[in-house]
Here is the input.
Amino acid sequence: MEALLQKIEAYRQEINDYAGTGAEAAEQFRITYLGTKGLIKNLMGEMKHLPADRKKEFGQILNDFKQFTEARYSALKETGSNGQQSSAAAIDLSLPGDTIPVGSRHPISMMRNRIVSIFQRLGFSVAEGPEIEDDWHNFTALNLPEYHPARDMQDTFYISTDPAWLLRTHTSNIQIREMEKGILPLRIICPGRVYRNETISARSHCFFHQVEGLYIDENVSFADLKQTLYFFVKEMYGNDVSVRFRPSYFPFTEPSAEMDISCQLCKGKGCNVCKYTGWLEILGCGMVHPKVLEHCNIDPAKYTGFAFGMGVERPALLKYGINDIRLFSENDVRFLKQFTGVV
Here is the structure.
């Protein structure tokens, strides 16, 4: 037992001289002396080797040593807490904070906002609708009945649990929903994301963004449509851009046209984006088909209107000099940070 008493006395001196400070030192002290595998736990295990008549005496000495150790640990904890408070109090709160990196709007968002702004100046208001749509609003009401061959051009993604629902192929579904309300005259633009089952390349993607426009009123003509789109193109690309209309076919408009502008990347010389023609189609347009008006309970003998639709990515390619549409959805920070400060 005398050997154990000598150990306790040596440990007491060691604890009394412990020089560590701070919260980490206090925690290390607790583990070393008071932990489940610490020194005091080991000393308690030595009691089984003592004679029965000496165990009570040693137990009292060991308990006194444990209380001494716990008191030393409490003092170390308090010192560590005070040290932390002093360190916090030394912080100068009047100093400027850490610099936060400045991001930017995505180029698609910037182009969408710019397109919307131009048409709002012509009196168009913004309308929005669902991306998951039923067959009526996405196809049938737009004079695209079931098995119509024009549906093949808008092959899309259907909901497997209910094929009557699909991811919209254009934002024309919003036009139908707005016409069904019966509030005329109607002058709206419909921005949003759309989906088509297309091969991904430098010019196309399986999802993209559109802005469609619709104007319904009495005595609306194709001349109104052309002047509206001329204004848009000049505001977007400047007075030097060339414009041409080509006859086309859309089931929901009659007559129909596609509008091309001179390629702003190659200045009409030819590149992979314009397929080396010098021209780039940016939108389709036409006069609203009478059957579409009838489907929405609008009298085609009294009202006429025009509609147009454009992708957002393609004008953005031309506006910002980008040659691959896939860059918009790759989330490459090196690409996106080039637009910091661009409006």
